[in-house]
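Limitations

Structures in this collection are predictions, not experimental determinations, and the ligand pose is part of the prediction. Treat each record accordingly. The example that follows, with 2M8 as the small molecule, is included so readers can see exactly what is and is not provided: the inputs are given verbatim, and the output is the predicted complex.
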Amino acid sequence: MTDLDHRARDILCRNDRGGYTVPTHGLYPFQWNWDSAFVALGFAGFDRDRAWQELETLVSAQWADGMIPHIVFHQHDEGYFPGPGVWATGQTPPTSGITQPPVLATVVRRLWEEEGADPAHPRMRALYRACLASHRWFHTYRDPLGNGLAMVTHNWETGRDNSSEWDEALARVDTSGVGSYQRRDTGHVDAAMRPKQSEYDRYVAILQFGRDCGWDHRRIADEGPFRMIDVGTSMILLRANRDLLILAEAIGDAPAAAELRARIALSEQGMDWLWNEEVGAYCSRDATTGASSALVTNASFLAFYAGVGTPARHARLIAALARIEAGTRFLLPSLEAGSRDYDHRRYWRGPIWLVVSYMVALGLAEHGEAAWSERLRRDSARLIEAAGFYESFSPETGEGSGGGDFSWTAAMWLAWCG
Ligand code: 2M8
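Predicted complex:
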């Protein structure tokens, strides 16, 4: 084991709060949904029981309607805004009222296969049921166009919180009733790395809409102030449906398998709507106006991970990757340099996030693009080697940004790039 292996394990153990892991000390003091899924991959290399437990603790907070919340507030901490009192979801344990990208089923499949793929595996079977309920929730509440794509009703649901893809839709959000509140994030890290205040007001306004309608997910989906078809969530859900289908078949759950096959076919076709021929990439679209973001982000390349696209489209995506590579030092930036509001230090408007790079690299390898996949892996390793286990990294300088000793970055070192 190398020194970095030791440090990565140590970060996961120090961020462990007993059955779940915080993304980083201070800035994010609770359990986050997709962070935990990636963190389980990190634990899996040295503590199998703890890996499964991370996922089990997450789904212990699943709502009765099937939604797996984006934050679980297991213990009190004043250091984060918005905390449980602001969300006011009435759940036990307290949670936020929105979700995050459903990477869970894909991780469950990987852990289960690593342990011999026994259909009777009790921990896999319990998590299978949780994933199925969560995917059904997406299909019931988050497919307004009936085309198998996933709508998000808050930009925090995408995980790529302040991506420029959301700017136009966010600009329409009325912030006149937001009132005053105290942000906590800028007390932990440099404000130049975080979303701007005007953006935060909009995030809070969308939250308040959900709270004011008692977290009625039907109403939020139909009438909410932010309704985006997110390319990232749509691709991740499609991949997760494929992985869940493998589990359904192993278990012998024929009705669920048939349902999943139909969903997969629908989504494969639905993705056409996200393809922007002019840009040569899959881009998010506004569900209300139909407008394409026309922006190439790291999520555009999740097409490989989801297994969608024709050879011609793949060629254009690879051309976009080559263009991005030519314009920066490290892959894969969250937004192409030169795009409007690109900023190599500001959160999801440029910095590299290794969890997205990992999913893209996996997809590229599965589509015969081994050299590109390896390039992403190597760049990710170099970033950690030079800067440490940061939340994100500048694609231009390689410097770390956001929180330090970050759980999912440590997990990616252990499970992928290290
Ligand atoms: C960031 O998001 C949270 C809100 O969910 C925040 O900024 O307060 C995002 O990077 C998100 O993708 C991530 O899950 C979370 C915790 O790492 O932080």
